[in-house]
Amino acid sequence: MLDSLVTSKTRIKLLLKFFSHTNSGYLRSLAKEFDESTNSVRVELNRLAEAGLLVSNDAGKTKVYKANEAHPFFGEIKGMVAKFLGLDDLLEKVVKRMGNVEKAIITGDYANGIDSGVIQMTLIGKDLDREYLDFLIEKTYEKINRKVSVTILEKDSDEVSGILVYGK
């Protein structure tokens, strides 16, 4: 859906990053997270900031970006991203009832803006309730008609790449 409306894969990744959760980021970390060149990320950050969708603050020498919650289309874009991901309810329930979730990361095709029908997610945390997760995955499939594949890691790994939708 989003890939037919927005032609830049980098822009899709930025929209998913900033409008799926109250995320912020700076150029180099975003380029590393998306495995993209800093130049392509810079171009898209500038376009989104010029459109008023992102705001930036200086933190020393670093410019930190986040979604502009005052933008008239903030709610609509956030809703569109949530529908694209289909995970807004799942994430809220996972974080509240699964245990000590440190991070939730969308990986795979959805992290790249492609609606393949299978949503891949990595949860990082200890002593997570796997039975409850299986229940949520089944209910999510019934609700949004997409399979959810979840990998659970106890420790954060630099090898997991995707879009951080919960945690820091």
Automatic annotation (TrEMBL):
Protein name: ArsR family transcriptional regulator
Recorded superkingdom: Bacteria
InterPro entries, A to Z: WH-like_DNA-bd_sf, WH_DNA-bd_sf
Biological source species: Algoriphagus sediminis
SUPFAM superfamilies, alphabetized: Winged helix' DNA-binding domain
